[in-house]
Design brief:
By secondary structure, the chain is of the alpha/beta class. It has helices at 14-19, 22-28, 40-45, 103-116, 132-146, 163-172, 186-192, 203-217, 234-246, 272-288, 310-319, 359-369; strands spanning 35-38, 60-65, 100-102, 121-125, 152-156, 176-182, 222-228, 250-255, 295-297, 303-306. The structure holds iron/sulfur cluster (2 copies).
Protein backbone atom coordinates (compact mmCIF):
# COMPACT_ATOMS: atom_id res chain seq x y z
CA UNK A 1 0.00 0.00 0.00
CA UNK A 2 1.35 3.38 -0.97
CA UNK A 3 1.09 7.14 -0.25
CA UNK A 4 1.88 10.49 -1.78
CA UNK A 5 4.29 12.91 -0.26
CA UNK A 6 4.16 16.67 0.14
CA UNK A 7 6.85 19.23 0.40
CA UNK A 8 4.79 21.51 2.58
CA UNK A 9 7.04 24.55 2.58
CA UNK A 10 6.98 26.12 -0.85
CA UNK A 11 7.44 24.20 -4.02
CA UNK A 12 10.82 22.70 -4.65
CA UNK A 13 11.45 21.04 -7.98
CA UNK A 14 11.97 17.31 -8.09
CA UNK A 15 15.61 17.58 -9.12
CA UNK A 16 16.28 19.77 -6.11
CA UNK A 17 14.50 17.37 -3.76
CA UNK A 18 16.73 14.52 -4.75
CA UNK A 19 19.81 16.57 -3.89
CA UNK A 20 18.67 17.17 -0.31
CA UNK A 21 20.21 14.96 2.35
CA UNK A 22 17.95 13.21 4.87
CA UNK A 23 19.01 15.80 7.45
CA UNK A 24 18.14 18.68 5.12
CA UNK A 25 14.84 17.05 4.22
CA UNK A 26 13.84 16.74 7.87
CA UNK A 27 14.78 20.38 8.49
CA UNK A 28 13.20 21.87 5.36
CA UNK A 29 10.30 19.62 4.50
CA UNK A 30 7.22 18.33 6.26
CA UNK A 31 8.16 14.67 6.43
CA UNK A 32 7.65 11.76 8.79
CA UNK A 33 7.91 11.22 11.67
CA UNK A 34 6.85 14.82 12.41
CA UNK A 35 4.28 14.86 9.62
CA UNK A 36 1.88 12.22 8.44
CA UNK A 37 -0.64 11.77 5.68
CA UNK A 38 -4.17 10.89 6.68
CA UNK A 39 -6.99 9.44 4.58
CA UNK A 40 -9.59 12.07 3.69
CA UNK A 41 -12.32 10.06 5.46
CA UNK A 42 -10.23 9.93 8.64
CA UNK A 43 -9.41 13.66 8.37
CA UNK A 44 -13.16 14.37 8.22
CA UNK A 45 -13.81 12.02 11.13
CA UNK A 46 -11.24 13.86 13.29
CA UNK A 47 -12.54 17.30 12.26
CA UNK A 48 -9.32 18.14 10.43
CA UNK A 49 -11.22 18.59 7.15
CA UNK A 50 -14.79 19.70 6.55
CA UNK A 51 -17.29 17.34 4.98
CA UNK A 52 -19.45 14.30 5.53
CA UNK A 53 -19.05 10.67 4.59
CA UNK A 54 -22.08 9.22 2.85
CA UNK A 55 -23.87 6.54 4.84
CA UNK A 56 -21.39 5.80 7.61
CA UNK A 57 -18.65 6.92 9.91
CA UNK A 58 -15.01 6.16 9.41
CA UNK A 59 -14.00 3.42 11.86
CA UNK A 60 -10.24 3.60 11.43
CA UNK A 61 -7.81 6.49 11.31
CA UNK A 62 -5.55 5.48 8.41
CA UNK A 63 -2.19 7.22 8.40
CA UNK A 64 0.64 7.07 5.92
CA UNK A 65 4.30 8.00 6.15
CA UNK A 66 5.35 10.98 4.09
CA UNK A 67 8.66 11.48 2.26
CA UNK A 68 9.44 13.69 -0.72
CA UNK A 69 10.26 10.73 -2.94
CA UNK A 70 7.03 8.85 -2.13
CA UNK A 71 8.10 5.20 -2.05
CA UNK A 72 11.30 3.60 -3.30
CA UNK A 73 9.50 0.45 -4.36
CA UNK A 74 7.98 0.34 -7.82
CA UNK A 75 4.74 -1.60 -7.77
CA UNK A 76 3.12 -1.37 -11.16
CA UNK A 77 -0.36 -0.43 -9.88
CA UNK A 78 0.65 2.10 -7.25
CA UNK A 79 0.38 5.87 -7.29
CA UNK A 80 3.49 6.17 -5.12
CA UNK A 81 5.73 3.95 -7.22
CA UNK A 82 9.30 5.18 -7.71
CA UNK A 83 9.04 5.43 -11.49
CA UNK A 84 5.58 6.96 -11.69
CA UNK A 85 6.15 10.33 -13.35
CA UNK A 86 5.62 13.59 -11.49
CA UNK A 87 6.25 14.84 -8.02
CA UNK A 88 5.23 12.47 -5.28
CA UNK A 89 3.24 15.31 -3.74
CA UNK A 90 1.01 15.41 -6.80
CA UNK A 91 0.39 11.69 -6.83
CA UNK A 92 -2.47 9.98 -5.11
CA UNK A 93 -2.73 6.83 -3.06
CA UNK A 94 -5.59 4.53 -4.02
CA UNK A 95 -6.89 7.37 -6.21
CA UNK A 96 -7.73 9.72 -3.39
CA UNK A 97 -5.89 12.58 -1.75
CA UNK A 98 -4.29 12.11 1.60
CA UNK A 99 -3.87 15.50 3.30
CA UNK A 100 -0.80 16.16 5.40
CA UNK A 101 -0.82 17.14 9.08
CA UNK A 102 1.56 17.28 11.98
CA UNK A 103 1.75 13.87 13.66
CA UNK A 104 1.32 15.42 17.10
CA UNK A 105 -1.83 17.25 15.99
CA UNK A 106 -3.28 14.02 14.61
CA UNK A 107 -2.37 12.20 17.85
CA UNK A 108 -4.10 14.91 19.90
CA UNK A 109 -7.22 14.76 17.72
CA UNK A 110 -7.32 10.98 18.16
CA UNK A 111 -7.10 11.49 21.93
CA UNK A 112 -9.94 14.04 21.80
CA UNK A 113 -12.09 11.61 19.83
CA UNK A 114 -11.28 8.86 22.29
CA UNK A 115 -12.43 11.10 25.13
CA UNK A 116 -15.78 11.75 23.35
CA UNK A 117 -16.53 8.18 22.27
CA UNK A 118 -13.95 5.80 20.89
CA UNK A 119 -11.80 5.49 17.82
CA UNK A 120 -12.12 2.00 16.37
CA UNK A 121 -8.48 1.70 15.36
CA UNK A 122 -5.48 3.64 14.10
CA UNK A 123 -3.34 2.28 11.29
CA UNK A 124 0.12 3.55 10.37
CA UNK A 125 1.30 2.55 6.90
CA UNK A 126 4.96 2.42 5.98
CA UNK A 127 6.48 3.11 2.60
CA UNK A 128 9.80 1.76 1.33
CA UNK A 129 12.32 4.25 2.69
CA UNK A 130 15.47 3.98 4.78
CA UNK A 131 13.81 6.01 7.56
CA UNK A 132 10.57 4.05 7.60
CA UNK A 133 11.28 1.67 10.51
CA UNK A 134 12.57 4.29 12.95
CA UNK A 135 9.75 6.60 11.97
CA UNK A 136 7.07 3.93 12.33
CA UNK A 137 8.26 3.30 15.90
CA UNK A 138 8.34 7.01 16.66
CA UNK A 139 4.87 7.62 15.21
CA UNK A 140 3.38 4.61 17.00
CA UNK A 141 4.79 5.87 20.32
CA UNK A 142 3.36 9.36 19.72
CA UNK A 143 -0.12 7.97 19.10
CA UNK A 144 0.17 5.68 22.12
CA UNK A 145 1.36 8.55 24.33
CA UNK A 146 -1.77 10.59 23.56
CA UNK A 147 -4.29 7.77 23.26
CA UNK A 148 -3.32 5.04 25.71
CA UNK A 149 -5.93 2.50 24.74
CA UNK A 150 -6.60 3.00 21.06
CA UNK A 151 -5.86 -0.17 19.06
CA UNK A 152 -3.03 0.38 16.60
CA UNK A 153 -2.18 -1.58 13.45
CA UNK A 154 1.10 -1.25 11.61
CA UNK A 155 0.68 -1.71 7.87
CA UNK A 156 4.32 -2.62 7.59
CA UNK A 157 6.70 -3.02 4.67
CA UNK A 158 7.81 -6.64 4.85
CA UNK A 159 10.98 -5.93 2.86
CA UNK A 160 12.21 -3.65 5.67
CA UNK A 161 11.30 -5.94 8.57
CA UNK A 162 13.05 -8.53 10.67
CA UNK A 163 12.34 -10.20 14.00
CA UNK A 164 13.77 -7.35 16.08
CA UNK A 165 11.76 -4.67 14.32
CA UNK A 166 8.59 -6.72 14.66
CA UNK A 167 9.25 -6.95 18.40
CA UNK A 168 9.89 -3.23 18.67
CA UNK A 169 6.67 -2.40 16.81
CA UNK A 170 4.77 -4.53 19.30
CA UNK A 171 6.46 -2.91 22.27
CA UNK A 172 5.70 0.53 20.83
CA UNK A 173 1.99 -0.29 20.98
CA UNK A 174 0.74 -2.02 17.82
CA UNK A 175 -1.26 -5.22 18.28
CA UNK A 176 -1.79 -6.07 14.60
CA UNK A 177 0.59 -6.26 11.65
CA UNK A 178 -0.75 -5.82 8.13
CA UNK A 179 1.33 -6.87 5.15
CA UNK A 180 0.64 -5.70 1.62
CA UNK A 181 1.01 -9.01 -0.16
CA UNK A 182 -1.35 -7.62 -2.82
CA UNK A 183 -0.64 -10.32 -5.43
CA UNK A 184 -2.19 -13.74 -4.95
CA UNK A 185 0.43 -15.74 -6.86
CA UNK A 186 4.22 -15.70 -6.89
CA UNK A 187 4.30 -14.93 -10.60
CA UNK A 188 1.99 -11.92 -10.32
CA UNK A 189 3.94 -10.74 -7.29
CA UNK A 190 7.20 -10.96 -9.26
CA UNK A 191 5.75 -9.07 -12.23
CA UNK A 192 3.97 -6.32 -10.31
CA UNK A 193 6.10 -5.86 -7.16
CA UNK A 194 9.31 -7.81 -7.50
CA UNK A 195 12.23 -7.87 -9.91
CA UNK A 196 9.88 -8.02 -12.90
CA UNK A 197 8.69 -4.53 -11.96
CA UNK A 198 12.18 -3.29 -11.00
CA UNK A 199 11.00 -3.41 -7.40
CA UNK A 200 12.68 -4.68 -4.22
CA UNK A 201 10.02 -7.07 -2.97
CA UNK A 202 10.39 -10.82 -2.72
CA UNK A 203 7.51 -13.27 -2.39
CA UNK A 204 9.30 -15.76 -0.13
CA UNK A 205 10.58 -13.04 2.19
CA UNK A 206 7.09 -11.57 2.48
CA UNK A 207 5.78 -14.97 3.60
CA UNK A 208 8.71 -15.39 6.00
CA UNK A 209 7.77 -12.10 7.67
CA UNK A 210 4.06 -12.96 7.68
CA UNK A 211 4.78 -16.24 9.49
CA UNK A 212 7.24 -14.61 11.90
CA UNK A 213 4.69 -11.94 12.74
CA UNK A 214 1.88 -14.47 13.17
CA UNK A 215 4.01 -16.42 15.66
CA UNK A 216 4.82 -13.23 17.58
CA UNK A 217 1.48 -11.37 17.44
CA UNK A 218 -0.89 -14.36 17.49
CA UNK A 219 -3.62 -15.98 15.44
CA UNK A 220 -5.41 -13.61 13.06
CA UNK A 221 -3.36 -10.69 14.42
CA UNK A 222 -1.50 -10.60 11.14
CA UNK A 223 -3.22 -9.91 7.87
CA UNK A 224 -2.36 -10.03 4.20
CA UNK A 225 -3.86 -7.45 1.90
CA UNK A 226 -4.83 -9.11 -1.38
CA UNK A 227 -5.94 -7.19 -4.46
CA UNK A 228 -8.55 -8.60 -6.81
CA UNK A 229 -7.86 -7.58 -10.40
CA UNK A 230 -4.07 -7.87 -10.89
CA UNK A 231 -4.41 -10.67 -13.44
CA UNK A 232 -5.13 -13.59 -11.12
CA UNK A 233 -7.99 -16.06 -11.50
CA UNK A 234 -10.73 -16.67 -8.96
CA UNK A 235 -9.06 -20.01 -8.27
CA UNK A 236 -5.82 -18.21 -7.33
CA UNK A 237 -7.76 -16.03 -4.91
CA UNK A 238 -9.66 -18.95 -3.41
CA UNK A 239 -6.38 -20.83 -2.88
CA UNK A 240 -4.98 -17.77 -1.11
CA UNK A 241 -8.04 -17.49 1.14
CA UNK A 242 -7.76 -21.15 2.18
CA UNK A 243 -4.00 -20.88 2.68
CA UNK A 244 -4.28 -17.85 4.95
CA UNK A 245 -7.26 -19.18 6.87
CA UNK A 246 -5.61 -22.55 7.53
CA UNK A 247 -2.54 -20.72 8.88
CA UNK A 248 -4.61 -18.39 11.09
CA UNK A 249 -3.63 -15.37 9.04
CA UNK A 250 -6.36 -12.86 8.18
CA UNK A 251 -6.82 -12.08 4.51
CA UNK A 252 -8.30 -8.72 3.48
CA UNK A 253 -9.60 -8.12 0.00
CA UNK A 254 -8.88 -4.92 -1.91
CA UNK A 255 -10.07 -3.91 -5.34
CA UNK A 256 -7.76 -2.96 -8.20
CA UNK A 257 -8.61 0.49 -9.50
CA UNK A 258 -6.21 1.81 -12.16
CA UNK A 259 -4.18 4.86 -11.17
CA UNK A 260 -3.29 7.33 -13.93
CA UNK A 261 0.37 7.27 -15.05
CA UNK A 262 1.12 3.90 -13.49
CA UNK A 263 2.19 0.88 -15.54
CA UNK A 264 -1.28 -0.61 -15.09
CA UNK A 265 -3.15 2.63 -15.82
CA UNK A 266 -4.98 1.05 -18.77
CA UNK A 267 -5.69 -2.32 -17.17
CA UNK A 268 -9.42 -2.91 -16.68
CA UNK A 269 -11.13 -3.22 -13.33
CA UNK A 270 -12.62 -6.64 -12.80
CA UNK A 271 -16.36 -6.94 -13.51
CA UNK A 272 -18.56 -6.33 -10.49
CA UNK A 273 -20.09 -9.80 -10.97
CA UNK A 274 -16.69 -11.33 -10.35
CA UNK A 275 -16.08 -9.18 -7.31
CA UNK A 276 -19.39 -10.14 -5.73
CA UNK A 277 -18.89 -13.87 -6.33
CA UNK A 278 -15.40 -13.79 -4.85
CA UNK A 279 -16.66 -11.82 -1.83
CA UNK A 280 -19.40 -14.39 -1.23
CA UNK A 281 -17.05 -17.35 -1.61
CA UNK A 282 -14.51 -15.76 0.75
CA UNK A 283 -17.11 -15.21 3.43
CA UNK A 284 -18.44 -18.76 3.08
CA UNK A 285 -14.90 -20.11 3.45
CA UNK A 286 -13.99 -18.02 6.47
CA UNK A 287 -17.29 -17.90 8.33
CA UNK A 288 -19.31 -20.94 7.21
CA UNK A 289 -16.65 -23.60 6.78
CA UNK A 290 -17.19 -24.05 3.04
CA UNK A 291 -15.09 -26.95 1.75
CA UNK A 292 -12.64 -26.35 -1.10
CA UNK A 293 -14.28 -28.97 -3.31
CA UNK A 294 -17.63 -27.16 -3.20
CA UNK A 295 -16.38 -24.35 -5.44
CA UNK A 296 -16.49 -25.06 -9.17
CA UNK A 297 -14.47 -23.13 -11.74
CA UNK A 298 -14.62 -22.81 -15.52
CA UNK A 299 -11.66 -23.61 -17.76
CA UNK A 300 -10.26 -20.11 -17.12
CA UNK A 301 -10.36 -20.48 -13.34
CA UNK A 302 -13.42 -18.33 -12.67
CA UNK A 303 -16.17 -19.39 -10.28
CA UNK A 304 -19.17 -20.99 -11.95
CA UNK A 305 -20.94 -22.51 -8.96
CA UNK A 306 -20.77 -23.14 -5.25
CA UNK A 307 -22.28 -26.44 -4.22
CA UNK A 308 -23.71 -25.57 -0.89
CA UNK A 309 -27.10 -25.52 0.71
CA UNK A 310 -29.27 -22.93 -1.06
CA UNK A 311 -30.71 -21.68 2.23
CA UNK A 312 -27.22 -21.15 3.65
CA UNK A 313 -26.22 -19.16 0.57
CA UNK A 314 -29.35 -17.03 0.54
CA UNK A 315 -29.11 -16.36 4.29
CA UNK A 316 -25.46 -15.46 3.91
CA UNK A 317 -26.27 -12.94 1.18
CA UNK A 318 -29.07 -11.52 3.34
CA UNK A 319 -26.60 -10.94 6.16
CA UNK A 320 -24.90 -8.37 3.94
CA UNK A 321 -21.60 -8.98 5.72
CA UNK A 322 -19.78 -10.67 2.80
CA UNK A 323 -19.98 -7.45 0.81
CA UNK A 324 -18.55 -5.15 3.45
CA UNK A 325 -14.98 -3.88 3.49
CA UNK A 326 -12.48 -6.33 4.96
CA UNK A 327 -10.30 -4.82 7.63
CA UNK A 328 -8.80 -4.90 11.10
CA UNK A 329 -11.21 -5.02 14.06
CA UNK A 330 -11.81 -2.55 16.86
CA UNK A 331 -11.24 -3.44 20.51
CA UNK A 332 -14.53 -5.41 20.56
CA UNK A 333 -13.68 -7.48 17.52
CA UNK A 334 -15.96 -5.58 15.14
CA UNK A 335 -14.50 -4.59 11.77
CA UNK A 336 -13.12 -1.05 12.14
CA UNK A 337 -11.10 -0.40 9.01
CA UNK A 338 -13.98 0.31 6.62
CA UNK A 339 -12.09 2.71 4.30
CA UNK A 340 -14.93 4.80 2.84
CA UNK A 341 -14.10 5.68 -0.80
CA UNK A 342 -11.16 3.27 -0.77
CA UNK A 343 -12.48 1.15 -3.65
CA UNK A 344 -14.98 3.49 -5.35
CA UNK A 345 -15.42 7.20 -5.86
CA UNK A 346 -18.35 9.25 -4.65
CA UNK A 347 -21.24 8.52 -7.03
CA UNK A 348 -19.83 5.15 -8.19
CA UNK A 349 -21.26 1.76 -7.19
CA UNK A 350 -19.74 0.36 -4.04
CA UNK A 351 -17.24 -2.43 -4.48
CA UNK A 352 -17.08 -3.08 -0.77
CA UNK A 353 -19.53 -1.37 1.52
CA UNK A 354 -18.16 0.57 4.51
CA UNK A 355 -21.45 -0.26 6.25
CA UNK A 356 -23.74 -3.30 6.29
CA UNK A 357 -25.79 -3.28 3.07
CA UNK A 358 -29.52 -3.91 3.47
CA UNK A 359 -32.78 -3.61 1.45
CA UNK A 360 -32.20 -2.06 -1.97
CA UNK A 361 -28.46 -2.49 -1.61
CA UNK A 362 -28.93 -6.25 -1.23
CA UNK A 363 -31.23 -6.28 -4.26
CA UNK A 364 -28.51 -4.56 -6.26
CA UNK A 365 -25.89 -7.01 -5.00
CA UNK A 366 -28.05 -9.94 -6.12
CA UNK A 367 -28.42 -8.40 -9.58
CA UNK A 368 -24.69 -7.76 -9.80
CA UNK A 369 -23.83 -11.31 -8.76
CA UNK A 370 -26.05 -12.87 -11.47
CA UNK A 371 -26.51 -16.09 -9.58
CA UNK A 372 -29.20 -17.44 -11.90
CA UNK A 373 -29.58 -20.43 -9.65
CA UNK A 374 -25.98 -21.49 -10.27
CA UNK A 375 -24.66 -20.85 -6.78
CA UNK A 376 -26.12 -23.38 -4.40
CA UNK A 377 -28.40 -26.35 -4.62
S1 LIG B 1 5.54 -0.80 -1.67
FE1 LIG B 1 4.56 -0.74 -3.67
S2 LIG B 1 2.37 -0.61 -3.24
FE2 LIG B 1 3.45 -0.05 -1.34
S3 LIG B 1 3.67 2.21 -1.43
FE3 LIG B 1 5.50 1.37 -2.31
S4 LIG B 1 5.14 1.28 -4.53
FE4 LIG B 1 3.17 1.51 -3.51
S1 LIG C 1 -6.93 -3.66 7.21
FE1 LIG C 1 -5.71 -3.29 9.05
S2 LIG C 1 -3.60 -3.18 8.33
FE2 LIG C 1 -4.95 -2.95 6.55
S3 LIG C 1 -5.21 -0.74 6.27
FE3 LIG C 1 -6.89 -1.45 7.57
S4 LIG C 1 -6.20 -1.21 9.69
FE4 LIG C 1 -4.41 -1.09 8.34
Amino acid sequence: MPVAASLGKGRIMETEQIKLSSQEQSELLNISPDYVRISMAAAIELGLKPGRIHGCGCGCINLLQNYPEGCFANCSYCGLARERPGLAEDNSFIRVDWPLFSTDLVAKKIAEKEAESTVGRVCIAQVQDHRANDDLLDMTRRIRKHAEKVPISALAMATLLDKNILKEIKTAGADIIGIGMDASTEEIFYNTRGKGAKGPHDWDYHWEIVHMARDMYGSFKVNCHIIIGLGETDEDLIDMFYKCFSQKIACYLFSFNPEPSTVLENAPRQPIKRHRRVQLAKYLIEEKGLKRGAIQFDENGFITSINSNEITIQNTINEGLPFMTNGCPDRDGVMACNRPYGSYRPGEDFRDYPFKPTGDELNLIREQMQLNGNMGN
